[in-house]
Amino acid sequence: MSRHVVVGAGAVGSAVATALAARGEQVRIVSRRGGGPEHPSIEPIATDVTGRGTLARLTGDAVALYDCAAPPYHRWPEEWPPLAGALLEAAEHSGAVLVSAGNLYLYGPVTGPMTEHSPIRPAGAKARVRAQVWQDALDRHRAGRIRTVEVRASDHLGAGSRSLLTGLVLPRLLAGRRAFVPADLDAPHTWTAVSDVARTMVAVAAAPATWGRAWHVPSADPVSIREIAVLACRHTGSAAPRLHTLPRAALWLGGLTDPTVRALRETQYQFRAPFLLDSTEATATLGIAPTPVAESLAETVEALGAAHRSRSATS
């Protein structure tokens, strides 16, 4: 039985902690609020990991350190550097392999499917900071100071997932309302199941041959936002979705007063054209079959419904 430390108690961090506990491992899940799954093998800890030496002390006896943190979307440029610094310090101090949950931002606008070998061309402040965080970790790995590996996913589906789809589109449609989406509704888009992110992180943590590079999380075939919306409404028996494309100008205006909406401007290229992740290399190497979109979407919809009922009961 080994010790594992998971930073972040959101959808991915909770899924990683649950997967590790199911294997009989001892898990510390660290977040500012001290949340996480309830399990006898999971120890939740509430702390700010960016405090000097804090995370290093918590990771001293760990074999693996999982970066599943998610700073507020509009504050990535400010909050990622100190968080990344704490993770690198803890990995170097403890010798634990640092396994990071990454995304596809660092590739920038693309014209075809993204592979792990696509050039790094970040466009915008959020993409640049994520690219720099990975480069800093990789530089330390190559210098022999730490051991690290990154797994990259597209927009998440699954219980607790947070994305344009799960935060803006589905809640409105499932409430019988119109949804105005800053996207090409019919562009094919890759979606990644949160459970597959967790399975991939746990798999690479235990496989030294995979370290020192990035892997794409095995993901199902791409599906457009319109197709997703139809499937979601069909799953709940809701009326046919009423979807409309939000013009770029409207997004720009909304961003004048809302920092999260303003942050979405930077990644419009991901939703105004096909956005395709190629995960064949990881699927073949790790032997992980991606969860079908219908299955991860059903989990998403059921979790959104449960959250809505909970809010209604307490209001």
Automatic annotation (TrEMBL):
Origin species, per record, is Pseudonocardia autotrophica (Amycolata autotrophica)
Top-level division of the source organism's lineage: Bacteria
- GO function term, MF aspect, one: aldehyde dehydrogenase (NAD+) activity
Q: Which GO terms describe its cellular component?
A: cytoplasm
Output this protein's name.
NAD dependent epimerase/dehydratase family protein
Q: Which InterPro entries does its entry note?
A: Epimerase_deHydtase (IPR001509), NAD(P)-bd_dom_sf (IPR036291), NAD(P)-dependent_oxidoreduct (IPR051783)
- The segment(s) forming the NAD-dependent epimerase/dehydratase domain are 6-210
The organism's taxonomic lineage, starting at the top = Bacteria, Bacillati, Actinomycetota, Actinomycetes, Pseudonocardiales
